Amino acid sequence: MDTSTSVTNRSSLHISQFILMGLPGIHEWQHWLSLPLALLYLLALAANLLIFITIQHEPALHEPMYYFLGILALVDIGMATTITPKIMAIFWFDAKAISLPECFAQMYVIHCFLGMESGIFLCMAVDRYIAICHPLRYPSIVTDAFMAKVTGFMVLRNGLLTIPVPVLAAQRLYCSKNEIDHCLCSNLGVITLACDDITVNKFYQLFLAWIIVGSDMALVFSSYALILHTVLRLNSAEAMSKALSTCSSHLILISFFYTIIIVLSVTHLVGEKIPLIPVLLNVLHNIIPPALNPMVYALRMESSDWVSRGCLATTMLIQLGSVEVISKSNFNILIGQILDGHRFKRSNFNSSASVQVHYFSTELKETNHAPMSPKALPHTGWQKFHCPTPPSHAQLSSY
After folding, report:
1. pLDDT digits over 322-344, tens only?
2. 115 near 158, Cβ under 8 Å?
3. Would you say 86 and 184 are in contact if contact means Cβ atoms under 8 Å apart?
4. Would you kindly state where each structural domain of the chain is located, as residue ranges?
5. Does the record carry Transit peptide as a key word (predicted)?
């Protein structure tokens, strides 16, 4: 008799919706934050749409680097749109109620877009690593098929691995409190309201963070560490400055993204002491990157194009720098002019002719030494690259 009464009372308390309370501790004046958040959202929409449309309609931007940038723009739009309209509804119209299916759907989409953004950062880091550290192999590695496979893998990885997050959350029993001190349906914020055991949910959240974000973060920073190691070996101050300038802007955005992810992963540890900080960081993490990413990458488009235009120059600096094949001053002038985009763009490489890199070391004017064969050089990484025709003496003298 007591057991049946307990089951009846528990069923009667089963909730059908959550109440998103907003920012904890500042409920009375949180509506004042709606204006800057709305402006950031509009900026993110406009900037990312502009970048995506520009990349689609400009043939010169149909390169791997801009292809990934276009995907990042779509991910940023999706991420910001997933949460911002609901936050504005809470702040402006006090529309705090959200049904369980809507909450779980928002939870899934947020995790998907976070994983996709992390994956795109990894793809861009790998693209730059190949372009700078293995430039002569870049056109043969980073092909259209390669980009399609990488993009498909990222979509499947994030789409499938995040399914258990809302599924496990939906299996919990919510029978008493339904107020969430948050602006969105975060996994940890929702499952803490459950009446039954949530150990599996927490374990899978930790597992997902290590598998997706942890592995991506390790590979991203490893790629940039190798890039910086390569760049610091350059003999040209101009080339080093351009490379460091480009990498620094990317590293700032990536560091911001992963730093907030780490903070969010320990939200449940600091939430009891200062609940506002993790919630506010969670909201800003979903709005600020979509607004900042297009501006930073758009401003760096010209300098980022150095990667695809200066592949040969980078290799020449590394492989010829330790061998005084030409005078240092003339060599630096040559590399600077190549980096400024005189020729050797990725689109110019095809299979119509094959020329060895050491061609330049034997034919440049004002060399300090006699022509050297590849076997005489201390490096063994000499490979063939493809260009329409070998440069003539007149073209070389134009440098």
Report:
1. 333 334 444 444 444 444 433 33
2. yes
3. yes
4. 12-307, 311-397
5. no
